[in-house]
Specification:
By secondary structure, the chain is an all-alpha fold. The protein has one domain. The chain has 9 helices and 2 strands; from the N terminus they run H-E-E-H-H-H-H-H-H-H-H. It has a two-stranded antiparallel ribbon. The relative contact order is 0.17.
Length: 207
């Protein structure tokens, strides 16, 4: 679960011009630079994204255009939060790995972040097999804070898949995600507080 506290009752995010610029999207795919999505954010956040450009660009492939229906602010937040969590996931941050699994499994923002009684995943394309792969990677990561809740999430997100998709998720976790995480950890770490303290939606968002 996201461990950062809600930062006040008003969401204060710098304008994310690249999200609103529809020319940066072609056939539902974002074609701009990942760092452009964070224009106006803190220098530390921008530096983190630029230093992990490859991971950020992979994360961007999971995004979808924000709908023009009054949910732009929440959509922007989902997308920026997903990219930051995706980067931190490969540095072994369990909370970020759990968040990435939530987004990709189609659950949208984690259950604590409920807007009008809904979990909204707008701006991030569901990829249930990838979400399941992250659930498996979490369980085999050896992180000391992995809990029964992670096993229950695995059962919920993976057992609903076909046998073929489950096999694919297991292969992705074992041959791709876990080795990448181990390789990334060998190169150092990042300040997780930058990600964990990134603003979350306040409870009074109404659209």
């Amino acid at each position: 679960m996201i461990r950062a506290a809600l930062l006040g009752s008003i969401l204060c995010l710098a304008p994310l011009a690249a999200f609103a610029d529809q020319s940066a999207w072609q056939d539902g795919v974002y074609t701009g630079q990942a760092a452009d999505l964070f224009a106006g954010q803190s220098p530390a956040i921008i530096a983190l994204v630029k230093a992990n450009d490859f991971l950020a660009r992979v994360a961007v492939t999971n995004l979808s255009p924000c709908p023009d229906d009054g949910t732009q602010q929440l959509c922007n937040l989902n997308q920026t939060r997903f990219i930051l969590d995706y980067i931190a996931s490969f540095y072994g941050d369990l909370n970020s790995q759990q968040n990435v699994a939530y987004f990709l499994s189609g659950d949208g923002m984690p259950p604590k972040i409920i807007v009008n009684q809904r979990n909204l995943q707008i701006g991030v394309s569901p990829a249930p097999v990838s979400g399941c792969a992250w659930r498996i990677a979490i369980l085999i990561s050896g992180h000391p804070d992995v809990s029964d809740g992670d096993f229950l999430n695995y059962k919920e997100d993976c057992e609903s898949l076909s046998s073929r998709d489950q096999d694919s998720a297991h292969a992705t976790a074992a041959a791709d995600l876990v080795p990448q995480i181990q390789a990334q950890l060998a190169h150092g770490s990042i300040p997780f507080s930058l990600v964990d303290n990134y603003p979350l939606p306040p409870s009074n968002i109404t659209n």
